[in-house]
Amino acid sequence: MKKTIVFVLTILLLFSGFATQSYASLSDTQSAAIQALLDDAGRISGVPGMSISILADDEVFYFSSGYADRESGLSASENSLYELASLSKAFTGMGILLMEEQGLLSMSDSIQKYLPWFTLKYHGKQVDMQSVTLNNFLHHTSGLTNGSLNQNIPQGNTQDMLQKTVEMHVDSELSFYPGEHYNYGTVNYDVLGLVMEIVSGQSYEDFMKEQVFQPLGLHQTYLYKKDAQATRQLAQGYRSSFLMTTPYNAPDFSGNKPAGYIISCTKDMARWMGIQMGIVQDIPEIFHTVIEKSHQGDMSVPAVNEMYYAAGWSVNANHTIIEHPGGNPNFGTEMVILLNERTAICLLTNGANINRSMVLQVKDILEGNLTQSYGISGTQLLDIVLSSTTIILCLLAVLFFLLGLRRRNTNEPQPMTKKRIIVTAILLIATIVQCIMCFALDWSAILIWQTYSVLTALISSALLTASITWFVYTHRYNTSL
User: Fold this and answer.
1) Please, what's the b/e burial string for 248-268 (b: 16 or more CB within 10 A of its CB; e: otherwise)?
2) How far apart (Å, rounded) are the C-alpha atoms in residues 439 and 459?
3) Is 170 helix (H, G, I), strand (E, B) or coil?
4) Is 336:344 a contact under the CB 8 Å cutoff?
5) CA distances (Å), 470 to each of 407, 417, 433, 464, in order?
6) Residue 82: which of 273, 265, 240 has the closest Cα?
7) Which residues have CB under 8 Å from 429's CB, separation 6+?
8) DSSP E strand stretches across 207-280
9) DSSP reduced 3-state for 299
10) Contact 275, 291 (CB under 8 A)
11) Number of Cβ within a 10 Å radius of residue 336
C-alpha cells in the first residue's frame, strides 16, 4: 500500500510539472465530495471513525465521519485522539536531530558510544559496531528490518520497556550489512529513542514533551495513554475479522513508542503539517534548521520506489514529496505533504482496515475531480478472501467426512489398491504438514496484527485435507468381512 501511494504521488507531480495548485477555499461541492468519500470509506471498510485535516494554501479544513467510540456514541472530530502509528517516527526524528543541533550528539556518532552493549550479527558473525552510526538507524540502513524482528517487541507499559525492547534485539541477524541498503524496520527508531534517554538523562516521554511538543505548540499530542484517556477524546481501536468490526484493545507496546505509539488528533496534525511546510512561524528558531535537516533523505543508498528515507519521512529526490503511512493493530494513519503544491493531508482512523490511499482521492477532489469511489484495502480484501475460504473449506470438509461415513457403511467390497494406498499416504502427510505449520506459526503475533480469518483458513484447510484422507481411506472398508 505504501509503495502504491508513493508511486502515484510521484506520477501526479511529474505530470503536473510540479505546478502550484491553488485552493483559496473549498467550495460546497468539494466539501460535500470529501465528506461523502469519508462516509463511504467508513461504510465499506467497516472502520467506525476517521478524521482528516487538510492544509491548502495556508488554510486548514477538517472533516470527520463516524465514531471515535461507537459503543459510547462518541462522534469523531478534529479533537478525537488516535494512535499515530508510524507517523510517530517523524517526532522521534525531530527529537534526535534537535539534540544534534543543541550539540548533545552527532548523527555520525557510533552507536557504541551510547549503547556499548548493543551488538548485531550478519551471516552469523559479529558486526563491527564502531562503524554503525546513529544515521544508520535514522535512515533505516542498519540492516534491522521488519518481519520476524517485529515479534521480538515485548508487551508491557512499565518505564523500562524501551530498554527491554532494544535489549531484545541484541545480536539480531541483519538482513544486509549496515549502510548497504535502505529497508524499513520499525525497531530502528526504538534504538534512537533509547539513545535520546541516555543523552538527555530523561525518559523519552519527558524529553519529547518538554523539548518538542510544548515548544511547537502541540498541546493535544500525548505520550501516555492515561493522559489521552483523561481528555475523554481518545478513540477506541477496532479490528475486522470475518467481515465484522469489533472493539479491540491491543496489547501495550510502550517500548515501541518512539516508532509507533504517540497519540494525537487531526487538529494538532494540521499544525504539525504547517510546521513542516514553513507556514507556522511561532516556534523557536532552532526548529527551522532541524525541520530542514529532517527532510533530507539518505541518498548514499539506492532509492526504494523513487523514494529515500529521511528522519521519519519518506521523501523524493528533490524533497517536494514528504509522506508516511502508519498501521497499528487497531489504528491506521497516513500523512502526505506536497511542498510545491502547498498542500498537506493527514488521515487518522481507529481501524487498520482502511485504504489509506484515499488521501490521493482527497487531493483529486481539491483539484476539481469530485467523483471519487472508495476502494477496499488489501487488508479488507484479505479478510474477505480468507473468510470465504474458511466457509468453503469447512463445508467441503463436512461433505467429504459424511461421504466417507456413507462409504464406510457400504456392503460392497472395495479392495485397497496400491494406488489408493499411495494417495492416502500422500494426503495423510499433507494433513500432518499442515497441522505442524499451524502449531509452528507464532499465533500470538498473528492474532495481534492480522485478521483472525488467517487462523481459521489454515485450520479449515487442514480439516479438509484430513476429511479427504478419510474419504479416500474408507473406500476400501467392507463391513461384510
Assistant:
1) bebebbbbbbbbbbbbbbbbb
2) 10
3) coil
4) yes
5) 10, 15, 16, 10
6) 265
7) none
8) 238-241, 244-247, 263-264
9) coil
10) yes
11) 25
At which residue does the C-alpha cell 536531530 appear?
97
- DSSP assignments along 445-479, one per residue: HHHHHS-THHHHHHHHHHHHHHHHHHHHHGGG--T
Q: How many residues can be counted in the chain?
A: 481
**Bridge-based pairing state of the strands 49-56 and 263-264:** unpaired
Considering only CA atoms, which of 479, 468, 478 is closest in space to residue 425? Answer: 468
And the C-alpha cell for 241?
A: 475479522
pLDDT of residue 150: 59
Alpha helix locations (H) across 330-478?
Answer: 358-366, 378-408, 418-440, 443-449, 453-473
**Residue 374 backbone dihedrals phi, psi, to 5 degrees:** -70, 135
Q: Say if residue 272's pLDDT is above 90.
A: yes
Q: What is the pTM of this model?
A: 0.87
Residues 338 and 18: beta-carbon distance below 8 Å = no
Whole-Å CA distances, 335 to 290, 370, 428: 19, 21, 50
Task: Give per-residue pLDDT as tens, 197-255.
Answer: 999 999 999 999 999 999 999 999 999 999 999 999 999 999 988 888 999 999 999 99
